[in-house]
Amino acid sequence: MGEMILLRHREIPTIDQLEVYRQQGGFEAFKKVVTSMQPVDVVNEVKNSGLRGRGGAGFPTGVKWSFLPNTLWPHYVVCNADESEPGTFKDREIMESNPFQFLEGLMIASYAVQANLSYVYLRGEFWQVAAKLDEKIAELEAAGILGDNLYGSGYSLRLRTHLGAGAYICGEETALLESLEGKLGQPRLRPPFPAVYGLYGKPTVINNVETLTNLPFILERGAAWYKSLGTDKSPGVKIFSLSGNVNRPGNYELPLGTTFRELIYTHGGGIPEGRAVKGIMPAGASSAIIHVTADSLLDTPMDYEAVAAIGSQLGSASVIVLDETVNMAWLVDKTVNFFKHESCGKCTPCREGTFWMNRLTARIAAGKARPGDVALLESVAKQIAGKCLCALGEFSVMAVQTGLKQFRGDFEVMIEAGKAAERV
Amino acid sequence: VQRILAKYPEAFKRSAVMPLLYLAQREQGYVPRQALEDIAEICGITSTEVSSIVGFYTLYYDAPAGRYRIQVCTDLPCALRGADKFLHALCERLGIAEGGTTSDGLFTVEAVKCLAACHRAPMFQVQGDGDIVYHEDQTVELALAWMEEVRVRVRAEKEAS
Q1: pTM of the complete model
Q2: Cα–Cα distances in angstroms (integers) from residue A213 to residues A51, A106, B43, in the given order
Q3: Mutate to test the interface with B, among A141, A161, A183 (most CBs of B within 10 A)
Q4: How far apart are CA A298 and CA A282, in angstroms?
Q5: Which residue of B114, B133, B136 is the best one to mutate when testing the A interface, meaning the one whose CB has the most A CBs within 10 A?
Q6: Of A17, A60, A313, B82, which has the highest C-beta tally within 10 A?
Q7: What are phi and psi of A226, to 5 degrees?
Q8: pLDDT > 80? residue A424
């Protein structure tokens, strides 16, 4: 592995101390942008770097920033630290162990869109992470790195944390804004998009923790340097959260375009007891399951384009490995149960559909399926897909549809087993 | 309360409703009825709206339970590492059903959704005393040993008071 860009605490364990972070060049990038760059130059530099949102959608970050109109003020930056996708645990590690680089990234983004007040929206379970960030923010204010008239430039900035309270849907950016405004976390109808009508009805940028943490390096070393990492269309590095049936689960920072094989076998230490890989969910519970029908599929590069080309998505790169012992009917019941619980209830197809899908999957997984249950499950899934305001409904059918299509046998085994149990 | 309100623009006090609910819940582990009224007044909304927030978000409670809520993640990645078995074994050793509370009123054990610690399963978070703490790479023995430590501490606190 080369130099760490995001998980730098793996090399410098005390980098969460302000003094140490500054010795390592910390806040030089922020100082540089505030004192010597126009906001539009910062936006262009990030555009040129090719950085794409690391929260899952992969939208070009600089382009997102450029959508904010300069006729409506104030502007806000809200960091999405709601990290709730089953299989994702990268943002927590960044915020816990390399907090200043993350905050510096948020500060650079704030300057780029000229926001004077920015929020970090953390999932409620990150209680202790929020407390730590509050301390770090106070240190920065005391050191004069945050506050009024920074570096004599006239630019002022304040950062605040805000805790959610246990709702996956708040990772969806408009639900997150609703929640931050003190309302139920339910997605808004779009357009208008948050870039025009965001927090408190004002132009707002919402960026993921990992996305922001890239910024100090990009501004310090330049767009060309960042583009030299990763692949042409997916430049840079990415943190892959590896979990499931592997010997060494954990976060691995690697260039985009690293193969599944390298992640799972070289870094993850392979599968327990040398078992075979049956499937991979590269974007957490929301993924289309990749059926590993041929060993060569493991040589697929993990970048946005290549993973899409084999019928799935890279998303937030939360790679869940499924070995040959996993029954997909069981798995689909797990994921559907998750989405049923997390549906916000706003759109009928998702609210009712996830409930019905879960009744069916639970019956199938328990070996109590009735004739026609599998066909009914397929039909309910079809009626959810493409009919909801946000992506949650879509995500809820991913594993169902790809599971039924590719692993029909697993469902039939459960149904047969149920019949056998009845006969006894 | 003032410190919480200061985090948000003057005109948008409603944003304070979630932090205020955490504050209200700190003492008794759930949001008492009176607090709904108080928070509604501070934020300039109705108490029904505050109640709907309590109902929507899973970390707020409207009824008392054990002082410490042991919340085991049983989602897919954790389940692949034995989280379901861990939860059942723990409940069995404590002689309670899932979602039940120990007879001393100290611990409620329940299954929850993903907690972003998939690589260190089985794991649980403990919600109580106005804090949330993660316990990772767990075994039933480790969990029981930690619970015993808490029992000893609580007993000592009682005797001291």
Answers
A1: 0.95
A2: 11, 8, 34
A3: A183
A4: 12
A5: B114
A6: A313
A7: -65, -40
A8: no
